[in-house]
Amino acid sequence: MLGNLNKYNIVLASKSPRRQELLKGIGVDFTVLTKGIDENYPARLPLIDVAPFLSLKKAKAFEEAELPENYMVITADTVVIVENEILGKPKDRNDAIRMIHMLSGKVHKVVTGVTVHTKEMTKTFSVISKVTFENLENQEVEYYVDNYRPYDKAGAYGVQEWIGYCGVCNVEGSYFNVMGLPTQKLYKVLKEF
Amino acid sequence: MLGNLNKYNIVLASKSPRRQELLKGIGVDFTVLTKGIDENYPARLPLIDVAPFLSLKKAKAFEEAELPENYMVITADTVVIVENEILGKPKDRNDAIRMIHMLSGKVHKVVTGVTVHTKEMTKTFSVISKVTFENLENQEVEYYVDNYRPYDKAGAYGVQEWIGYCGVCNVEGSYFNVMGLPTQKLYKVLKEF
After folding, report:
1. Out of A31, A125, A138, A156, which could bridge A90 as a Cys pair, Cβ 3.0 to 4.6 Å?
2. Min Cα–Cα distance to chain A from B1, Å
3. CA nearest to A176 within chain B
4. The complex's ipTM?
5. Nearest C-alpha of chain A: how many angstroms from B38?
């Protein structure tokens, strides 16, 4: 499948081991090459548009000269939105605990924006999933943070970890999108290149 | 967490590596001990009740003498229901291809029934998830069946494999329930023992 991609040297611009695993899972061969950007976005941007905006910004950060010949760059950004606030990566233990308490007993949105960029074409899209957490006890939140140290994760949780097994009672939409890459939609978009 | 289970020797009666991984994921220590049963069920049983019925039958198949002291037995059964038919494990390649074509472009239900059985108490419950498949092309179905050989899976697919990444556009409910064990509900039930 995706034989149409054989003409490209594919670069995934993400350090996330979860994204790397998911992209492999849909059958894409790639190398990893990342480039730091400032993750600021315009203050008036609707929260729902932040992840695709940042994925496009990550793609534009590459100069063509840095890229292999016949390149395709795939970038992604994931945000957690709860009660009209974006939760990024937690600063420290207290911040992680605060974030998970904000999610406890509520529904939140996870938006992943993805940009697929070649010399000829740039496509940006996003996928929204809705995640419902159980009411979590304080000792459960602390147990999770101290044992799983979710400091590299937006919203301070990984749905594929203990807290996803025990604390998430409902996902509506794509589970893999919550992990960090909307595999099914990405597969459809990649077919078009 | 689940320190209340320390008094039990826990037996998981399932050969499924996915169930073993999920039970480990919620932090339960267990050994695996399985017992073959005939998987017949009463013809008039509503389809939705088949999985919990079979999980209870699997638990009852154990004689107390076979079990360790202070035992807790956990059994589970997963079925796929589409258009008022239960899809079990496929008989062969053609049967697997037929099943996936039945699921293509439609919503189906996945029901996992679980029984937790100790000397003092037996609890049976089930969880339903709804899964939506994209319209799959014939070559995608054959690619999946030939590369992943889903002969040990109800409905002939594993949601955690290529076909789940590329072919499933929506899950409503528990993703882990679709994999074979409703981890969040099981965690809640185990707290009560």
Report:
1. A156
2. 7
3. B165
4. 0.90
5. 30
Give the count of Cβ contacts less than 8 A between chain A and B: 75
Instruction: Identify whether the C-beta of residue A157 lies closer than 8 Å to the C-beta of residue A96.
Output: no
For the packed helices A183-191 and A17-25, what is the interaxial angle rounded to 10 degrees? Answer: 50
Q: Give the separation between CA A176 and CA A93, rounded to whole angstroms.
A: 26
Residue B183 · residue B12 · CB < 8 Å: no
Query: Is A77 known to be catalytic?
Result: yes
Residues B101, B141 contacting (CB under 8 angstroms):
yes
Report helix, strand and coil shares of chain B as percent, to nearest 5.
40, 25, 35
pLDDT tens profile A30-82: 999 999 899 999 999 999 999 999 999 999 999 888 899 999 999 999 999 99
The amino acid that residue A111 corresponds to is: V
Each residue's pLDDT tens digit, A121-173: 999 999 999 999 999 999 999 999 999 999 999 999 999 999 999 999 999 99
Min Cα distance A180 → chain B (Å) is 12
Write out the H or E segment, with its range, that includes residue A10: strand A9-12
Smallest Cβ–Cβ distance between A165 and the set B134, B165, B183 belongs to B183
In the block, residue with structure tokens 């059964």: B77
pTM for this predicted structure: 0.92
Is the CB of A166 less than 8 angstroms away from the CB of B143?
Answer: no
Judge: A184–B167 Cβ closer than 8 Å, yes or no: yes
